[in-house]
Amino acid sequence: MDYRGKKLLHNPQQLLHLITPASAPLTDLITTHSRLLSQANSRAIASAAGFKGSQSRCISLQEFHTEQQFIKKLVEFFVALGGAEGLLLVQCDNGEANFNLIACCRYLVDETRRRTLEDIDDHVKPIHIIFIIQLPKIAGGCQHFVGFQGGKWQSVHIDELLESNEQLPQIEQLVDRSVSDLFQPAYPARGDVIEDMDVDLDTSILSGSQELNVESREDFDEKEIDQQKIKPTLLLKNCLQAAAARIYDESAEVDRATKRIEILLKWLPEDNSQETEFSKILATRVHKLLQQRDDKCPENQRLWLRHEALRQGHLQETGTFRKALWQKLSSIVSPMLSEVIAYCDQNHNLDLLREEKEWKTRLWLTMINEEVITPLSYDSFTSPVSGRVRERARVSSTGVGHRFSAKFPFSWIIKDTVNVLLLQVGADPSKTIISLRSVFYSSPLGQLLKPTFEDKNIKGEAAMNYLNDFLHMMYKPIVEGELQLICDAVVAAAGKLHQSLYENDDVEMDIPLIHFTYSLIQARLVNFSELVHAFPNLVQTILRKRDQLDVGEMILDVVALECCLQQLEPKPRDLGNADNRLVWCNRVQCIRPIIQVMKSLIPRPSQQIAKGDSEARFNAQLFGERSTRYLQNCRTTWIRLDVVRMFIEHTCPPGQSTHPADAKNAFLLSKALRENTDFSTVHTMTVIERFLKSCSDGMRERLIRFDTSQCEICKSPLQDPVQMPCEHICCMSCANGWFQEHNVCPICRKEVGGNFKVKISEKCRHALETYNSFRNRCKSFFMELVSVYCFGEQLPNPDLVRKFIGYVIKDENRTEDFTPFDGQGIDVTPVIRSYILQQLLVIKEREKEVYKHLEEYLHRARGLAEQREHLIEVCVLCVQCMEDVETVKLLKAKEGGENVQILMASRELERTLRTIHVHQNSLTINCLRDIAGIRAALDVLSTYLGDDFAENVKRFEALQKCLDTAKHLCSNSSRSVLQLFLLKQLVRHDPNGIEAVKERCKRKELKWIMPPQSEEQDKTPDTFIVHHENYHTVREALGKAILTSNIDDLSVVIQDIKAQPSARSCYVLLALFREITTTFSHVNKEDKIPARVLEKLNQYIAGIQYLPNEVS
């Protein structure tokens, strides 16, 4: 840089000293690429040069429209000087376009000055004239502007007229140094002379004029340059605004960026020549990031200044070389600085520097100074693909779903570190906290924090501040005050934990204890959070009785549950209309998973905890007696509310109109169950039965005057009710028959009158449908209640088992539909009864009692001929339930491998083979168990006798033995039904039908499965096979349906046949004729089609609409 040119603007007297008092006045031409001087700039320059007031003037050529105006302005200035020394600055922009104007004005200035001075006496002082011309940045220089040629005009180019706001170091200090070097604490003095790079003598400008001799460095104040050593703080402050602009923050504070800059400026020194601890640390972190950047870049970063000097395009964009340097320097430093700031300001961490807490400030600065503790690498904010630094530095928040202001320095780093250590320590809870403390305080982070938590004056405050941050990072609050309750809960649990470990009350809260305590109670805190989501006003309710939580153990979750259940107590407005009932039921339902989870937290009795199970014993100490008592009471209350919910959902379904009395029944049920919620007892179930019968009676009295359980004539459920004048009701079919011969009511014998007509009463039918629908919904409610609460974790007592057996087998020795009501039931098929019986059978503790009751019934019913059909139904029901139980056992055995399942099935067949002859002529519960076991085992066996049978024999060594046992069991002619059952299972599991099974059973090992008469049947020619392939398909499906007693598959096959309805009818009739004639032609009656299957076939044929009526 030309230091003379620089001093011209800093101190204009330097240029005047080049001219002796007797010499001619100074005439200079200054070209620049920067903006021109303002009036304020020109007055400052004139004042610095010693020109006061009217002794200086700065004019712009663009302000004059004519030559006369310009001359007049010159004359006025020269005359006003009156012979005194003066300074005239003439400026013009775009010298390339205005080169003719500039040349003309130069001539006018010389001439005007000469003529004006001639009119004044000879004792005039010189008038200095400086032209300042702005030139555009054009590659190769200007074509038209050539400067002032000849005369005494001197030309010089100054890149930057005014001193830059960016206090950039001297350019010679930047040569051969990378940007990272600028942030080193100190640098050795560089003695080599550096060529000036800021001011270039433009040869094109100086052509034809007197050159300006470039003065050496010795002509200037070298002390000033030496004192301008590189100050990292100065660079940081200059880059601070640009770095802050790159930071992206989602914080709701609109002025967060301003606060961030204020904090940083407060901790950076005001005097750029000074350094503070914060500025040193900040410069060091930026320096390390820049060093990592240098290592990543392939080019030599020490040559950045030279590269920038050669970039003409960049120079044209910025205007001056100094600006280009500053822009380059800022583009390198600002991203690093912004990343450091964003890292430090997570969770508003910078705000801690504003607090008047000496321990926080000291800890903050110590942690950010330790790179091992607060790591920040260049790779963490660069793209792994392009290697470029990201455009914005993101200020992240580690709060769970929310932002918060930290109270402990760099708490997120501590949280992550301790969580990792917690996973590494042992699983024994009694030793975990000791191990965690040992490992933590041995780590670099723990050693740094240890003095803080050993200081009695601040350790309590430090622990609570960290606990606040930790909870923000682990728990998501949704209402105000929620985190305060969580904080109290952690403190209470930590106290209980400390007392159980050390048996004293002096709790010393520290970071390891906070983490360990939270890990133990986290599941309970999750339950509390779920409750708050369901009941947002819960927090304020608990805060009002916050003192009740201080009982020496954590009871927050159970107290919250109790408050929720109190809010759920049904009120008239909750059940007044359908919408309110739906809302209330949903709120009760949402408590269910929380209750189930909290119930699992109840510790087992100490005598049930194994000696080595230290975790269970430890959790039992945390879940104290108060929590257990609270939860047991809450569960009782919730069961009552849930039962009321079931009743509402069944009897008052949404979208259907209900009578106010139906909703009122829910209050009666809640009242009836207030002291009776143990559904493992007969008493509670009796209360439910009485309540339902009362509801049924109330409904009947409200809708129908007389009993509607049955028709008084046919004693069957009412169908198409006919109401007589006396309001008695009977079936329409019964009424038609009765009133053909009588004219009186069949019930009360009152005359009906001559105008009475037998017709269906729509009012009665609607009332009857409403009544039956309500009864059915009550029965459904009763079924759900039994399935949910009678077979839960509590075993039904023996009396309740007897009552349940009574639902299946009443004391009157008859089967009864599953219903708490007298009269008709809703379970036409024994599905519900099967469920009850199956649930009873799977309870091992009650298995003997169930078998005892069933055995008593079988013994009592064996000799009663009139009970034969009923007895068969009960036996089939028992066999099916027992078979389901055995099937479940076999399926579980398969989890250990197919060979295990086959072996278990083989053992079951061997057992029944030894005992079945004992029960051959007797009907006992053991006989039914054997039948169920055989059916389950044969079903499993059939799954391995498919197309892959040969391969299965090789894979499973137990299969051949199981097959031999089954063959021996089925070989007895009296047990051919077992052979038929196995054949049915084979057909059921084979997708290719009976023909594929027959083909497979031709193998020597399986030939015994097919009955002998099947070969004779196959030899009988099928004269109908010539009709069509569809006939063959129907015949196969019909044969399979007869074997499996499943008519639904036959219906599907018929519907899939692409033929006219008449053709389908023909195929069905032909196949049925073929099957019946060939089956009934055999002597063995047991091989004929069972009567039940024939009945189903008749029903199916009758239901085919496209068959003629004569056939159906």
UniProtKB/TrEMBL annotation:
Keywords: Ligase, Metal-binding, Zinc, Zinc-finger
PROSITE patterns in UniProt: ZF_RING_2
InterPro entries noted in UniProt: RNF213, Znf_RING, Znf_RING/FYVE/PHD
SMART domains: RING (SM00184)
Phosphoprotein listed as a keyword: no
GO molecular function annotations of the record: ATP hydrolysis activity; ligase activity; ubiquitin-protein transferase activity; zinc ion binding
Protein name: E3 ubiquitin- ligase rnf213-alpha-like
Organism (species): Paramuricea clavata
Organism phylogeny: Eukaryota, Metazoa, Cnidaria, Anthozoa, Octocorallia
